[in-house]
Amino acid sequence: MNGGTRRIWARLVDMAIYYVNKNSQSDGVHEVHKGNCNYLPHPENRFYLGDFTSCHIAIIEALKYFSSVDGCYWCSRECHTR
Questions:
Q1: Which of 13, 16, 18, 74 has the smallest C-beta neighbourhood within 10 Å, fewest atoms?
Q2: What pLDDT, in 10s, does the model give residues 30-48?
Q3: For the stretch 16-49, what's the b/e string if a residue is b when 16 or more beta carbons lie within 10 angstroms of its beta carbon?
């Protein structure tokens, strides 16, 4: 599936594109963001996680790469625990 088709499919099934910040916060936590977040890290500082129906699934995916992750307060508040 190419990028355009994936974005159309994601809208149809109420999915969002998720990224994790490669750089941790001062407490060592890597934040998970939706692709349209105002606080999305610069492209060189983010890692594409995939298209998911919730931030909870994105958090599980991010834990495959980083041991400490949390949802962004602004775009993934239901997964923000700090």
A1: 13
A2: 999 999 999 999 999 999 9
A3: bbbbbbeeeeeeebbbbbbbebeebbeeeebbeb
